[in-house]
Write a sequence for this structure.
């Protein structure tokens, strides 16, 4: 696997991830008032847009996992990403996203991103920011996040959401939503388990948006025993091929805008360009016209920003 890293500069990133995933697998064996479609392109771009409250954002949002060094492929690629994404490169990367019409970024580390966001704004960037927050799990208080980063929305972390709901502590998530509203920004909830989204909708929480993971990665061992043995790829996390249909079905049923994430199975569908294309096509065909996607990008070997913007323009305009 280390040899693959040294050779990575000669590979496209799609191919590199495919090879790394295969190596790891072998070793492991193992809408409403706040939401409406907006068919007009964003200024200076051709990307379709949606509304989050009063904010107009492209249907493609740039994610934070590669920036934070979370590859879901193992520690080697995690380190590879962390070494690449210096603060200076993050600034230039987000500038490039904005040039391609991507005007929103979902981040998860307010302590690091505060200075980066200030730098971007000082340079005239109009990028909008959505903070993923773990509630009371040792993160900066909501009011500090709003003060330091001025996000348009704060969303409760999906893995923590799933855990609290499983433990019968959904009220903690509900209280978090209220704290975010009290701080004056849009409030959302992220989840991997579609049942969490269903419960929130059934109980009519006053949430402004959802982040909906295409793969239910937080299943308990008991839940996993009930699943069929076939998965997309097993590398630390089980990515079941049937999961995207389940989550997108729920996303279409709720009124709030949903931002689908891990649409590429955390890089496991990046081995060939046609697979990436197919994933974007499936995603926009199965989400509401008022929904968007969050996609992490690693531009070290090829222009994924332009590629993904192109797929969004091609497929999101048809819904």
């Amino acid at each position: 696997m280390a040899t693959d890293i040294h050779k990575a500069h000669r590979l496209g990133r799609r191919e590199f991830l495919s090879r790394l995933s295969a190596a790891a697998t072998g070793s492991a064996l193992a809408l409403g008032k706040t939401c409406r479609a907006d068919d007009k392109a964003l200024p200076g771009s051709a990307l379709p847009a949606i509304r989050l409250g009063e904010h107009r954002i492209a249907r493609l949002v740039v994610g934070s996992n590669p920036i934070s060094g979370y590859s879901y492929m193992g520690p080697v690629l995690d380190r590879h990403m962390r070494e690449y994404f210096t603060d200076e490169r993050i600034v230039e990367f987000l500038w490039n996203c904005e040039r391609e019409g991507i005007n929103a970024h979902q981040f998860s580390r307010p302590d690091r991103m505060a200075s980066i966001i200030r730098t971007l704004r000082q340079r005239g960037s109009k990028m909008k920011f959505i903070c993923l927050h773990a509630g009371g799990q040792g993160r900066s208080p909501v009011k500090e996040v709003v003060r330091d980063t001025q996000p348009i929305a704060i969303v409760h972390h999906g893995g923590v959401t799933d855990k609290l709901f499983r433990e019968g502590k959904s009220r903690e998530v509900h209280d978090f939503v209220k704290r975010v509203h009290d701080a004056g920004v849009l409030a959302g909830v992220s989840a991997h388990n579609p049942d969490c989204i269903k419960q929130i909708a059934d109980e009519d929480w006053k949430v402004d948006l959802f982040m909906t993971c295409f793969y239910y990665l937080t299943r308990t061992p008991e839940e996993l025993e009930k699943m069929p043995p076939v998965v997309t790829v097993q590398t630390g996390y089980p990515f079941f091929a049937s999961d995207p249909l389940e989550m997108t079905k729920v996303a279409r049923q709720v009124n709030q805008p949903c931002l689908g994430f891990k649409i590429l199975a955390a890089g496991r569908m990046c081995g060939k360009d046609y697979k990436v294309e197919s994933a974007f096509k499936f995603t926009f065909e199965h989400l509401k016209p008022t929904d968007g996607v969050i996609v992490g990008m690693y531009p070290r070997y090829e222009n994924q920003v332009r590629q993904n913007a192109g797929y969004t323009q091609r497929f999101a305009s048809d819904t």
Remarks:
- The chain has one domain: 2-316.
- Confidence is low (pLDDT under 50) at residues 1-41.
- The domain at 2-316 is CATH 3.20.20.70 (TIM Barrel).
